[in-house]
Amino acid sequence: MEFWKRWQSEDSTARSSASFMIVWRYTYGFGRKSHALSVGFLSEAIQCDQRTVKAELRKLLDCKILKVAEPFHGSSSRKLSFNKYVNQWLEVGKTSPPSKKIRGEQSTTSEGSKSSPLLGAIHHPR
Fold it and tell me: Domain limits of the chain?
C-alpha cells in the first residue's frame, strides 16, 4: 500500500514508527478509517510516558501524516485517522513550528481543523 512505501522513505525515529504502527493497527488493522485513541492507551501500548506520546503525536499531526477525525468531547478520546493523501505529508522534522496550545484546549491547524497531541515511544530494555 502507498502508506507503507511513503512511511519507509521517511527519516523517522523508532518512537514515531511505533506510534504510526499502533495507530495503523487500531484503524486499518481492524477495518476502520478512524478510531478513538487516548494518550493513556497509546502510552501503555508503546510502553512509554504520556508526555513522550503527546510529543510524538504532535509530530505526526504537524507532518499531516495523522489527522484528528473527531476532537475529544469531555471524557471521550479524540478519533485519529491517517491522511490518505500521502503527497500532503511533510517530512518528519521539517515542519513549521508547532502550534501553541493552552492546557486543556484544542489547537487549530492552519487548515482550520482541530488537532491535538497523542503518540509515543518504544521501550527498549537494557
Answer: 14-92+114-126
